[in-house]
Design a protein that fits this description.
single chain, alpha/beta, FAD/NAD(P)-binding domain, 3 domains, seven-stranded mixed sheet, six-stranded mixed sheet, 19 strands, binds ligand EGO
Length: 440
């Protein structure tokens, strides 16, 4: 989690590698993490190390002068590549030049990084900020903090103490889908597929994506209901399943590797966590997955966490770093937006699970892009607002509903397409909205 120039003693607890390294690199923050160093682990149990960085996350990195460093280690994806069942591939650009999603892997450690791995938080006090850690050598370490930032993930130890507080709201939802990661190796030292694309195989209840890595491999993530994972128990059944749904991926992953890696780890669960408030008195604040774990179907998990820091620091500026005012204001401003992206990611999961196959995906995206081209200020695709702007998440949702109403009003009054079926007045009303927005 990015905490910018807080002069007081601030202790971050948790955070995954990219958050920890970035935090420490920019602020000599003492970070305490119960897990071992992911960078030294050979196999990390089911934990994906691909992180999709887009505009919100980049703005946070920019504010601490880290954007160029981190972006230089990322792979830009300027379009989706939709893989149809018959093996045909359709590129759909994300939009304007420069609107890319960056794929990151754990960054390098920086000289002023003080990372305390395998430090388990035993206890902490909301009144005094006193913290007790159990170190890897078994010794206990007492620390006194002015502010404790709980960025210790979806199953936060810091948040556990919030549960004892009156009027603390908390919800946790596991979805019936799991995910499993496979590796697509390079061919003759080169990427097996076009690298600067987010490869998507939309198959309604099954989906697979492939994200490029710096070592020219792709990390393929298969999303599928646990019931379906349980039906595939032998190597031959894996091949049969892939022949039916992802035939073009078999030669690229390799049949033997597919049969082997498919069973390397069990399918991992996905959880959505929402809570409020995000703060306790003036001593503790939750950020990142500890505050709002989201399902991955919008690629916004890390970006929302980074934007937490950006918003926190904007409020620190406004309220002169007075934690007793900053923390409640951070809750007031940030909770509606983080709840909105959690709901949006879950909506996308339902949308993509129910009827998003390659034809529907293509249709939706072509329509979105077409309407955005002819009325760039009136129709802005939701994915564009979420991924390529800092439009507040809850405001993006409000605008999306308004745009859907405008579009559906026109469509329901005219059963047919294409465009020439619309009466002039329909076009006029749309263009009026467009010019009206121009005024705004
Ligand atoms: C890692 C990452 C970064 N962005 N996205 C993402 C997510 C959703 C998208 O569209 C939603 C939609 C398309 C068509 C109809 C309704 C909704 C698009 C898009 O427009 O390209 C891209 C993902 C991602 C993550 C998991 C799955 Cl399963 C997946 F497919 C992609």
């Amino acid at each position: 989690i990015l905490l910018l120039y807080i002069q007081k003693k601030t202790f971050g607890v948790g955070g995954n590698t990219i958050h920890l390294v970035t935090v420490s690199a920019c602020m000599r923050l003492a970070c305490h993490r119960s897990r071992n160093n992911i960078r030294q682990a050979k196999i990390v149990k089911g934990r994906s190390i691909n992180l999709a960085l887009s505009h919100r996350g980049r703005q946070a990195l920019k504010q601490v002068g880290m954007e160029d460093t981190i972006v230089s280690k990322g792979i830009p994806m300027h379009s989706r590549m939709i893989h149809s069942l018959n093996g045909t591939q359709y590129p759909i650009p994300y939009g304007k030049k420069g609107q890319v999603t960056l794929l990151l892997q754990p960054a390098e450690t920086y000289s002023n990084t003080k990372l305390n791995f395998a430090h388990k938080l035993l206890n902490w006090s909301t009144e005094t900020g006193a913290m007790t850690f159990l170190r890897a050598d078994g010794a206990k370490e007492e620390i006194q903090a002015d502010l404790i930032v709980g960025c210790d993930g979806a199953f936060s130890a810091i948040r556990k103490q919030f549960l004892r507080q009156s009027r603390f709201n908390f919800s946790q939802t596991y979805i019936p889908h799991g995910y499993l990661e496979l590796t697509m190796p390079p061919i003759n030292g080169e990427f097996a597929m076009k690298p600067n694309y987010l490869h998507i195989w939309p198959r309604n209840t099954f989906m697979m994506i492939a994200l490029p890595n710096l070592d020219k491999t792709f990390t393929c993530t298969l999303f599928m209901p646990f019931d379906e994972f349980e039906n595939v128990t032998t190597g031959d059944q894996v091949i049969e399943f892939f022949q039916k749904y992802f035939p073009d991926a078999i030669p690229l992953i390799g049949a033997d590797a597919l049969k082997r890696d498919y069973f390397r780890l069990p399918a991992q669960a996905m959880v959505s966590v929402k809570c409020s408030p995000y703060h306790l008195s003036d001593k503790c604040v939750l950020m990142g997955d500890a505050a709002h774990a989201v399902v991955p179907f919008y690629g916004q998990g890390m970006n929302a966490g980074f934007e937490d820091c950006l918003v926190f620091n904007e409020i620190m500026d406004q309220l002169n770093e007075d934690f007793s005012a900053v923390l409640p204001e951070y809750t007031r401003v940030r909770v509606p937006d983080d709840h909105a992206i959690a709901d949006l990611a879950m909506y996308n999961y339902v949308e993509m699970r129910s009827h998003v196959n390659s034809k529907w995906f293509l249709f939706r995206k072509y329509i979105d892009n077409f309407l955005h081209i002819i009325m760039p200020r009136t129709i802005i695709p939701l994915y564009t607002m979420v991924t390529f702007t800092r439009t507040r998440y809850h405001e993006a949702v409000k605008r999306w509903h308004w745009q859907d109403k405008v579009r559906n009003d026109i469509v329901t009054r005219r059963a047919c397409w294409p465009w020439h079926c619309l009466k002039f007045s329909d076009l006029a009303s749309l263009m009026t909205c467009h010019f009206f927005n121009k005024e705004n």
